[in-house]
From TrEMBL:
Native organism taxonomy: Bacteria, Pseudomonadati, Balneolota, Balneolia, Balneolales
One GO cellular component term noted in the UniProt record for this chain: membrane
PANTHER family, per database record: TRANSPORTER
Primary location recorded for the protein, binned into one broad class: membrane
Classification via NCBIfam families: Na_transp (NF037979)
Compartments where located: Membrane
Protein name from the UniProt record: Sodium-dependent transporter
Keyword Transmembrane helix: yes
SUPFAM superfamilies from the UniProt entry: SNF-like
Alphabetically ordered keywords of this record: Membrane, Transmembrane, Transmembrane helix, Transport
Pfam families per record: SNF
Transmembrane segments: 15-34, 46-68, 88-115, 145-163, 175-194, 214-239, 260-283, 303-332, 353-372, 378-402, 423-451
């Protein structure tokens, strides 16, 4: 049996763990993915279906990831290897590590954009237009490469600090700031002309638009946004103490992630319509809102510019600082998966492990920096197919190989009355039947649409 490496860490506090996991979940998926999906799919009806997907599929799978992680105290590959024999169990972990590395390669480039836009705004408002344009050019490979490397350096630095001194400390500082900035920005946008039209689009449901396609996009979005299917939360769970209530923590993380996605929509969709009243085009000829990249990196900066002066400067910079922080707390968790794998399985020290994986990821990111069309290709393979596939294998493994009774026994630590009430029964039904069937349907539909 593998011995526990000294570089394996532990969370310091219960809240620290919840914030770190929420930090992983809250990312670009919430702040630019969710609002555009809502806008594309008819507003409030999408929100409702999204909430159901998070609670009915996301939450049970998250509990499963935390339980497997804490029970085995291993990275995803070691965890599944410890719980089952044969080729299937480690494959789930290996798939997770691959998805982690590959998602990170393009996520880093987008994170680099959010970071460079802080300077784009700063230089615009201080009158240095040429510099502002350089920082705002998404196609500029050299600039993309520089910011990707900077972002990776920041991520590696935090990972090097270890679990409690690095990840926990960084996320504990960033998450409250992120929520505060978001709320202040929403408050201000609500006072601007045009915002009420956006609010209407965001909050009034149009159920005629609900079809199976919409349900499946909501489920895919929930998976990505909750960081499920690749073992990121399994890895975070492996640093948990036995006295923490996993079911309660997972519920907090899910609710926090949904709430921040909701708040992000409350900012972005009204802001789009504010931009429209300022004469900025927000929709294509087909009547659909622009894609998320255009919205975030064209329309919103234009809106900040239309605000002008001090407000434009402050809000412009604050928005991209917010996005960068959200991205950073997610890149940390994406990198932690392969790093923990190398620490556990190859007995390499944390700093060296993060340097090795960081360099490999950055090499691929550099290629993407110069060929940004690759982002879509990678996202389709690893977000839309990779994560549901991982989640499907994970729930099948838990329900039919490791067995829910064993998982429930793990959940009993820190939640002694797990058996009072119907928890084991209800969670069992979800993880055995509802989650695998729904995830498989999403996967099949996605593959079908890709092929035909
Ligand atoms: N949940 C993150 C987001 O919303 C992305 C992510 C996916 C992070 C998978 C870790 C694992 O942006």
């Amino acid at each position: 049996m593998l011995s526990e490496h000294k570089d394996r860490g532990r969370w310091n506090t219960k809240l620290g763990f919840v914030l770190a996991a929420a930090g992983s979940a809250v990312g670009l998926g919430n702040i630019w993915g969710f609002p555009t999906q809502v806008a594309d799919n008819g507003g409030a009806s999408f929100i409702l279906i999204y909430i159901i997907c998070c609670l009915a599929v996301g939450l049970p799978v998250m509990i499963a990831e935390f339980a497997i992680g804490r029970h085995t105290r291993r990275n995803p590959v070691g965890a599944f290897k410890k719980l089952g024999n044969g080729w299937f169990p480690p494959l789930i972990g290996i798939w997770g590590v691959i998805c982690g590395v590959m998602i990170l390669t393009f996520y880093m480039v987008i994170a680099g954009w959010t970071f460079s836009y802080i300077f784009e705004e700063l230089f615009y408002f201080t009158g240095l237009t040429a510099l502002s344009e350089w920082f705002g050019d998404l196609q500029n490979g050299v600039k993309n490469a520089i910011f990707t490397i900077l972002f990776m350096t920041g991520t590696v630095a935090i990972i090097n600090g270890g679990v409690s001194n690095g990840i926990e400390r960084a996320t504990k500082t960033m998450m409250p700031i992120l929520i505060l900035v978001l709320i202040i920005m929403i408050g201000y946008v609500m006072t601007l002309e045009g915002s009420s039209e956006g609010l209407k689009m965001y909050l009034l449901p149009d159920f005629s638009l609900v079809d199976t396609g919409l349900v499946f996009s909501a489920l895919g979005q929930a998976f990505f946004s909750l960081s499920l299917g690749m073992g990121a939360l399994l890895t975070y769970g492996s640093y948990l103490k036995r006295n923490q209530n996993i079911v309660e923590s997972a519920t907090y993380v899910t609710v926090a992630d949904m709430s921040i996605a909701f708040l992000a929509g409350l900012l972005i969709i009204p802001a789009m319509f504010v931009a429209q009243s300022a004469g900025i085009t927000i929709m294509g000829e087909d009547g659909r809102l622009f894609s998320s990249a255009t919205l975030v990196f064209d329309v919103l900066p234009d809106m900040f510019k239309a605000m002008g002066g001090m407000f434009g400067l402050i809000f412009g910079m604050a928005f991209f600082i917010l996005l960068s922080m959200a991205a950073l707390t997610s890149t940390i968790s994406l990198l932690e998966v392969p790093v923990s794998y190398i620490i556990d399985e190859h007995k390499i020290a944390r700093k060296k492990a993060s340097l090795i994986v960081g360099s490999i990821v950055v090499t691929v990111s550099l290629v993407i920096s110069f060929n940004i069309d690759l982002i879509d290709v990678f996202a389709t393979i690893f977000n839309n197919v990779g994560l549901p596939l991982g989640g499907l294998m994970l729930s099948i493994f838990l329900a039919y190989f490791w067995k829910t009774e064993n998982a429930v026994a793990e959940l009993r630590h820190g939640y002694s009355d797990v058996d009072n009430g119907k928890f084991p029964l209800i969670w069992g039904v979800f993880i055995k039947y509802i989650c695998p069937v729904l995830i498989a349907l999403v996967l099949i539909t996605t593959l079908y649409n890709l092929i035909f």
